[in-house]
Specification:
- The structure is a single chain.
- This protein is α+β, with helices and mostly antiparallel strands.
- The protein contains four helices and five strands; from the N terminus they run ααβββαββα.
- A five-stranded antiparallel sheet has the order 1-2-3-5-4.
- β2 and β3 form a beta hairpin.
- The chain is globular and about 40 Å long.
- The termini are close together.
Length: 153
């Protein structure tokens, strides 16, 4: 997939420049890369294909706080991520969530579910402790995601 450069409108530049990833997300995830609006992260739990999109906008907690164009972009990116993940990881159901109870920064979870996963059919949140990726499994999962998603340079 060809990588693209995106020019940022001046009126939005300060929102991106002031963006800082919440320390909890930084500690729990591995960087996939940046999409047009969102930073794409892989949660370090090898039991589930689990991508988190974080809009690169400062001080956002809720989707409705985004500018209308950013809301549309987030939905488009979410659909791209979800569709790709379901194909790439042979999912039966895609769980989406924007909880924010523990991490106040706006972020959107995408979790591919299968009837064979440990939490099925219940929620993955709070089910059990994460099982970290091995270095090799992490590298393979990141390669799949980076090749299949529209990650920008």
């Amino acid at each position: 997939m060809k990588r693209a450069h995106v020019l940022m409108p001046e009126r939005l530049r300060h929102l991106v420049e002031d963006f800082r990833l919440h320390p909890q997300l930084a500690g729990d995830c591995h960087l996939i890369g940046d999409m047009g609006l969102s930073r794409a992260l892989l949660l370090n739990d090898s039991r589930y294909p689990w991508v988190i999109l974080v809009p690169r906008r400062a001080a956002m907690r809720e989707i409705y706080q985004l500018a209308p164009a950013d809301r549309r972009t987030l939905l488009d990116e979410s659909c791209l991520v979800g569709e790709f993940m379901m194909r790439a990881f042979n999912g039966e159901k895609l769980n989406l969530g924007a909880l924010g109870n523990l991490v106040p920064q706006l972020h959107l979870h995408h979790v591919v579910r299968r009837s064979s996963d440990p939490a099925w059919p219940g929620s993955v949140w709070g089910h059990s402790a994460a099982v970290a990726y091995t270095a090799d499994a992490m590298a393979k999962r990141l390669q799949i995601l980076r090749q299949g998603l529209p990650i920008l340079i």
